[in-house]
Amino acid sequence: MSAKMIDGRAFAEMLREQVSLEVARLKENHGITPGLAVILVGQNPASQIYVRNKGIQTKAAGMASFEHRLPDTARQADVIALIERLNADPTVHGILVQLPLPGHMNTEAIINAVDPSKDVDGFHISNVGLLSTGQKAMVPCTPLGCLLLLRDHHGSLTGLNAVIVGRSNIVGKPMAQLLITADCTVTIAHSRTRDLPELCRRADILIAAVGRPGMVKPDWIKPGATVIDVGINRIEEASRSRLVGDVDPNAAQTAGAITPVPGGVGPMTIACLLANTLTACCRTHGLREPDGLAA
Ligand SMILES: NC(=O)C1=CN([C@@H]2O[C@H](COP(=O)(O)OP(=O)(O)OC[C@H]3O[C@@H](n4cnc5c(N)ncnc54)[C@H](OP(=O)(O)O)[C@@H]3O)[C@@H](O)[C@H]2O)C=CC1
Ligand SMILES: Nc1nc(=O)c2c([nH]1)NC[C@@H]1CN(c3ccc(C(=O)N[C@@H](CCC(=O)O)C(=O)O)cc3)C=[N+]21
Questions:
Q1: Which ipTM was obtained for this model?
Q2: What would the pLDDT profile of 254-285 be if each residue is shown by its tens digit?
Q3: Tetrahydrofolate dehydrogenase/cyclohydrolase NAD(P)-binding domain spans which residues (predicted)?
Q4: Residue 238 pLDDT more than 90?
Q5: Choice from 15, 47, 50 to test ligand 2 binding pocket (greatest atom count within 8 A of CB)
Q6: Which bound ligand lies closest to the C-alpha atom of 212?
């Protein structure tokens, strides 16, 4: 049997369409245009592509897009001064600082300089705390995207065993919080986990967020399980570069459903960023939040 391919690209397009409609309504009824500011420090080629795509999709949704590029040589104080300016700017409802930052900068200090109500990445300690205590937070885009795909596929997630491979602050940990709130039984695995294949075989929902091409093998998957491949790995092959996930493509023969790479979680991340910007804008202005866009 071959798994159902979960079409993240199509789902993300639907989500962006929904965001566009709400943005148009906000403009029409309240004269407000949601704005997203993205800060890019340095020349990381992958980051440049992501930031460009974000700008294009932000504008396509009818929102205002502000891009701020700083050189590698910028000082941490310059980045924080810029963030403070954006915090105070009423036309900016969301602020994203593209990661990774250059090595001489303290990522935590920079993330925590963002006004939590504009923290559309959901990385600020206040939002992390709100999420982990089950309160209304800004939710990190990638885990939110995974949750929306899982809810769409399963309906209720109650009682399902979820195994998350990866414990980063941007994917693994917030993913665990969301799935706990969705009444899954959650296990987080990492590089020190013993007998990872055996643990994965117990998962009804398996989430791979590791950064190792094809690490998750077909015989690690419980027949019929849902597999969400968060990994984005660029590999060089026959002098061309292509994107692969953390899951071996042959896993589709064991899984019940699986997200492809590309075309799975990646497009959902950007769609959720736009949804979060809209949510932040509605909250700032005390307006009703559109249904179905937040966790
Ligand atoms: N689709 C999207 O929108 C996004 C995709 N990504 C992709 O997701 C992947 C993970 O990203 P991110 O969370 O930032 O990565 P990190 O490098 O921050 O975390 C990787 C995690 O994987 C664990 N790990 C590493 N090797 C193994 C192993 N052999 N067995 C088990 N666990 C292991 C690490 O364990 P330990 O903690 O013990 O070191 C760590 O917890 C990357 O490919 C990244 O490009 C990331 C963000 C968004
Ligand atoms: N502050 C911050 N927030 C982030 O959310 C953030 C970040 N920094 N740094 C980098 C990672 C990575 N990330 C991706 C977003 C979209 C795709 C995406 O659209 N992927 C497409 C393919 C794109 C391509 O072809 O390169 C796909 O999977 O189909 C991938 C990865 C967000 N991240």
A1: 0.98
A2: 999 999 999 999 999 999 999 999 999 999 99
A3: 140-283
A4: no
A5: 50
A6: 1
Catalytic center residues: 54, 98, 121
Give the start-to-end residue ranges of the domains of the chain.
Answer: 141-267
Query: Which residue's entry shows tokens 């300016």?
Result: 85
Cα–Cα distance, 52 to 67 (Å, whole number): 9
Distance between CA atoms of 127 and 137, rounded to whole angstroms? 5
For residue 261 and ligand 1, the question of a CB distance below 6 A is answered with: no
Q: Which long-range contacts (CB under 8 A, 24 or more apart) does 25-33 make?
A: 26/278, 26/281, 26/282, 26/287, 27/62, 30/285, 30/287, 32/281, 32/285, 33/62, 33/63, 33/64, 33/91
Dist. CA 242 → ligand 2 center (Å): 14
Closest among 221, 219, 208 to 247, alpha carbons compared: 208
Q: Whose CA is nearest to atom 17 of ligand 2?
A: 266
C-alpha of residue 133 to centroid of ligand 2, in Å: 27
Cα of 119 from ligand 1 centre, angstroms = 22
Count of beta carbons in the 10 Å neighbourhood of residue 100: 12
CATH of domain 141-267: 3.40.50.720
Place of tokens 């800060």: 39
CA dihedral in degrees (57, 96, 208, 15; nearest 10)?
-30
